[in-house]
Amino acid sequence: MSELYLYNTMSRQKMFFEPLDPAEVKLYTCGPTVYNYAHIGNLRTYVFEDILRRVLEWNGYKVKHVMNITDVGHLTSDADEGEDKMLKGAKREKITVWDIAEKYAQAFLEDMDRLNLLMPHIKPKATDHIDTMIDQIKQLEANGLTYTAGGNVYYDTSKFPDYGKMAQLEKQELQAGARIEVDPNKKNPHDFVLWFTKSKFLTNPESVEGEDQEMQWDSPWGRGYPGWHIECSAMSMKYLGKQMDIHCGGIDHIPVHHTNEIAQAEGTTNVKPWVLYWMHGNFLVLEKDEKMAKSADNFLKLDVLIEKGYNPLDYRYFTLQAHYRKELTFSWEGLDAAKTGLRRLREKVCNLNNGSTIGSTTDPQSEYLEQFESAINDDLNMPEALATAWELLDDPKISNADKLATIKKFDTVLGLKLDEPITFELPPQITQWIVERNEARDNKDWGKADEIRDKIQESGKWLVKDGPSGTEVMPK
Ligand code: AMP
Ligand code: ZN
What we know:
Elements: E1 5-8, E2 13-16, E3 25-29, H1 40-58, E4 63-67, H2 85-93, H3 97-114, H4 130-142, E5 146-149, E6 152-155, H5 171-176, E7 192-197, E8 224-226, H6 230-240, E9 244-250, H7 254-269, E10 275-281, E11 284-286, H8 302-307, H9 312-320, E12 328-330, H10 332-352, H11 366-376, H12 382-393, H13 400-414, H14 428-442, H15 446-458, E13 462-467, E14 470-475
Helix pairs in contact: 2-3, 4-6, 6-7, 9-10, 11-12, 12-13, 14-15
Bound molecules: adenosine monophosphate (AMP) and zinc ion.
Adenosine monophosphate is lined by residues 30, 32-33, 41-42, 44-45, 249-250, 252-253, 281, 283-284, 292, 294.
């Protein structure tokens, strides 16, 4: 059977996977900032991480998976500037930041469930770990890696020799600093805040200032709140120890967030490398250079797809058609194709239960199992793995029973619920129209019934039929 190779962003090459401790692989995935719904770009990254975990488990590893929930606001820019994301959400919805965090953490867990993502074993919330973060900042201070300016505690990146190694930031770039406006308190452009106090740190006068923060805690440096990079190094080390096997996120995290996380973790413990394999998922982008931003007012979330008649697993299938390191462009035509593809795959699997036993050799699946494994073990080549699933189902030499057994095994990685009947969720508006249409029909108001049928059909990808119990709606 094939060996597992994963692409490591640190070395920029595929590397044979060898965990620190074969008894338990330590995996950390950067989680959501819960100030709004996740957009489908974010969800692409979580699907990639889910596949990674499933592939590790396929290879017989027991995985300890930790994912943080960022519920203490970080700023809209990575550079310690801009508005506080949580506060922005609270103002938008006129509820407290705590309620915002609760609401969107729940929504995120629901999205995970709908996409059939395996739950992390530990989901630490930033607000529950302020003390752990303060302890780490104290240690960094004791190690001479911090300074205080304008009331805030900063990480002095010039004192950490490997700073920017993973992002391959050149020295000049580090010195010339940023295209961004630099906080005048910073000694070096890439220095970042470990602890904010109530001081006016923001260079942008439009932004929400420190005094407005609802979430604040006492600390040795004054009442305030942590910078957003510290939570991941503090919480991951609390649950996974001084070193871990794999740390993941989207590619946007390479130059700032993960670069800063490394400086914090290794600057605290001096144990190097903190992470053996860094893995990053490429972006989902929209057509015509549109930006997919959670902070934009309009963005594509899973609910929008569901309202249009797609099953969340159609989207999962859509993302699996591209390699996780390649940029993927979202289009409705692409999603339609994925939906059709998944439905056909499901139908094929369903038909296997109606059992012909023609075909079959002594160990029929092993060839396909090997092919599938060599695809997933080649840095999670899911397009290849999906192709293998199709090939298996179309192979006349294999009996239905063997196909079914094999495809079920594949599905432990694909996570497409291939042997379950196709289900779909009706959006609340459609449910409401169904009730109204049934009433109109009871009242023999055929004009109104037709009008509502048209409304349902035009609202998205729904088909209306009249069944024995009244209006029946299904995806087109
Ligand atoms: P956030 O909630 O903004 O911290 O982002 C959650 C995850 O989604 C992070 O791992 C990001 O790197 C990732 N991400 C953000 N935008 C995209 C995108 N357009 N496509 C794929 N992943 C993304
Ligand atoms: Zn993180």
